[in-house]
């Protein structure tokens, strides 16, 4: 089946990266010092878009579900947390160096790319067999076997074409820093590699203080840090990034249903936000992490292919049991609901966990890639017909950095004052800007480039009858309406309700 092509599909990552910089969405970190690899800063428009996405996720979790509450845990945690979670021993990536190019790669990524090649060439079965074999070898920690697979598959360095590989080694991805100011012997303190553990160690605090009954969830948005070996593809893979995670605590035996429920709910979220169904897919994990009983990724088709945006994991009671064992503090819940088979309460148990974990930065990148549109516009008729290129960001109005721009047509005749009045009247409701420089066409273009859904023009008629034109970003159509109708009109379009209604 052929897929419809959309402008976003033909957009190159490099165009999106350039656009993101030029229009204040994302900058390379410490750029004046040539930049710190795999670290990025969000600019004035980027931070608004990212905050809107985070708020949307937060409200979709905590406001729409009576049984999901939030926390904000610290980045630093007792180092034993990471022993219990398995990160000290097992949060490794298999790395391999190429002796000719001196470049370092993730062995699993090289193999996955080879499998994707088979799939592209019309042999998905061979691709699937390859990733399954890799999964088997990695689960058995057979690193020599992984290297052999790379050799057998004739995988070469993508840059130099060389096949001179070192052995495969495991590399721990956690960053650490000095713990104690007084004790130089103190154990290192890690920068958390995931936000989940801040939730697990607070499980009982939250359950008791918020009087939660199972099943219930704890949501959190926060920074996480990973010393990624290969950090390419812009903000897709960074060393400092942000996660939006929700751990859902359930009665053992019910985790299968909850896993399916959250899997479907999370996919609906992305579709409601405007990511097309054809560019989203589920990808079951070939190699399960040490904690997982089942795991699936929601992948989005970025300009560089289908890649993970969110993970949904059925973690069993692994984490709480580990913390219970190491801390010697019971991590149990007393369930007084009646078990129909025994006629008695379910009693004490360590709950099972289903987790949804999405990277705020990857959601941001997917949103930006999807929004980036280039079109050719034809204007005029006959001999006078001209064509020009238009670039605009077709962001969902609910997440657009600026909701409306107000333009006085000219800088005189009371139009600037009228524009200011409209601004003052609506600024408690929406993030707005007033623009009075340059011709109207140029001002429209500037707003298109940052994805502002509406431009309100104050003209001569406004001074007579208090109506304005509202120009729509996507269609470029204009509608005339009374100033008094603006609040409801814009409010309807930018409300989170438009997304929530589809969940
Ligand atoms: P990958 O396989 O791409 O390394 P992962 O499976 O290790 O990702 P998880 O541990 O499941 O990722 O983390 C949950 C989410 O956090 C991911 O789906 C992704 O959106 C985000 N994430 C993980 N690592 C990074 C990173 N280095 N930069 C940006 N986002 C990340």
Structural notes for this entry:
It is built from 18 helices and 23 strands. The chain is α+β, with helices and mostly antiparallel strands. Among the domains are: 8-76 and 192-368, Bira Bifunctional Protein, Domain 2 (BirA Bifunctional Protein, domain 2, 2-Layer Sandwich); 398-500, Rossmann fold (3-Layer(aba) Sandwich), CATH 3.40.50.800. A seven-stranded mixed sheet has the order 3-9-10-16-13-12-11. Strands 20-19-21-22-23 form a five-stranded mixed sheet, sandwiched between helices. The chain has a three-stranded antiparallel sheet with strand order 5-4-6. The relative contact order is 0.12. The structure holds adenosine-5'-triphosphate. Residues 194, 226, 228, 237-238, 241, 243, 308-311, 357-359, 361-362 line the site of adenosine-5'-triphosphate.
How much is the average pLDDT?
A: 93
CATH superfamily of the domain at 8-76 and 192-368: Bira Bifunctional Protein, Domain 2
The proportion of residues in beta strands is 25-35%
Each distinct ligand: adenosine-5'-triphosphate
CATH level 1 name of the domain at 8-76 and 192-368: Alpha Beta
Please count the helical segments.
18
Radius of gyration: 26 Å
Biggest beta sheet attributes:
7 strands, mixed
Specify the overall morphology: globular
EC number: 6.1.1.14
Catalytic activity: tRNA(Gly) + glycine + ATP = glycyl-tRNA(Gly) + AMP + diphosphate
Function: Catalyzes the attachment of glycine to tRNA(Gly).
Organism: Hymenobacter ginkgonis
């Amino acid at each position: 089946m052929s897929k419809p092509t959309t402008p976003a599909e033909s957009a190159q990552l490099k165009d999106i990266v350039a656009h993101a910089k030029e229009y204040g969405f994302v900058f390379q970190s410490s750029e004046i010092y040539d930049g710190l690899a795999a670290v990025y800063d969000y600019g004035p428009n980027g931070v608004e878009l990212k905050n809107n996405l985070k708020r949307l996720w937060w409200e979709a979790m905590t406001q729409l579900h009576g049984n999901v509450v939030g926390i904000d845990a610290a980045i630093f945690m007792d180092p034993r947390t990471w022993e219990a979670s398995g990160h000290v021993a097992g949060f490794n990536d298999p790395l391999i160096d190429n002796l000719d190019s001196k470049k370092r790669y993730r062995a699993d990524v090289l193999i996955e790319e080879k499998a994707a090649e088979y799939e592209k060439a019309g042999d998905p079965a061979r691709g699937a067999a390859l990733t399954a074999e890799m999964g088997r070898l990695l689960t058995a920690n057979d690193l020599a076997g992984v290297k052999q697979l790379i050799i057998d598959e004739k995988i070469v360095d993508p840059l130099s074409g060389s096949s001179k590989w070192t052995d495969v080694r495991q590399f721990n991805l956690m960053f650490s820093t000095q713990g104690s100011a007084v004790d130089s012997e103190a154990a290192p303190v890690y920068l958390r590699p995931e936000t989940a553990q801040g939730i697990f160690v607070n499980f009982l605090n939250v359950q008791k203080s918020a009087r939660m009954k199972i099943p219930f969830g704890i949501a959190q948005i926060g920074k996480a840090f990973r010393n990624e070996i290969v950090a390419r593809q812009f903000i897709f893979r960074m060393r400092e990034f942000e996660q939006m995670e929700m751990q859902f605590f359930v009665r053992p035996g019910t985790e299968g249903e909850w896993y399916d429920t959250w899997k479907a709910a999370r996919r609906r979220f992305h579709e409601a936000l405007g990511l097309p169904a054809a560019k989203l897919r589920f990808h079951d994990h070939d190699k399960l992490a040490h904690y997982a009983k089942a795991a699936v990724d929601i992948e989005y088709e970025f300009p560089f292919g289908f890649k993970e945006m969110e993970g949904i994991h059925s973690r069993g009671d692994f984490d709480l049991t580990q913390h219970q064992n190491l801390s010697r503090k019971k991590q149990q819940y007393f369930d007084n609901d009646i078990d129909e088979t025994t006629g008695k309460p379910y009693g004490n148990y360590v709950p099972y966990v289903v987790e949804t974990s999405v990277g705020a930065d990857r959601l941001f990148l997917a949103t930006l890639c999807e929004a980036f549109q280039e079109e050719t516009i034809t204007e005029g008729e006959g001999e006078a017909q001209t064509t020009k290129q238009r670039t605009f960001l077709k962001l969902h109005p609910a997440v657009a950095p600026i909701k409306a721009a107000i333009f006085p047509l000219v800088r005189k005749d009371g139009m600037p004052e009228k524009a200011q009045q409209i601004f003052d009247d609506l600024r408690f409701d929406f993030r707005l800007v007033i623009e009075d420089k340059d011709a109207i066409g140029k001002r429209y273009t500037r707003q298109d480039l940052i994805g502002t859904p509406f431009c309100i023009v104050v003209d001569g008629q406004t001074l007579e009858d208090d109506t304005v034109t509202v120009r729509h970003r996507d269609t470029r159509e204009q509608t005339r309406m009374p100033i008094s109708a603006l609040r409801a009109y814009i409010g309807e379009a930018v409300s989170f309700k438009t997304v929530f209604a589809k969940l």
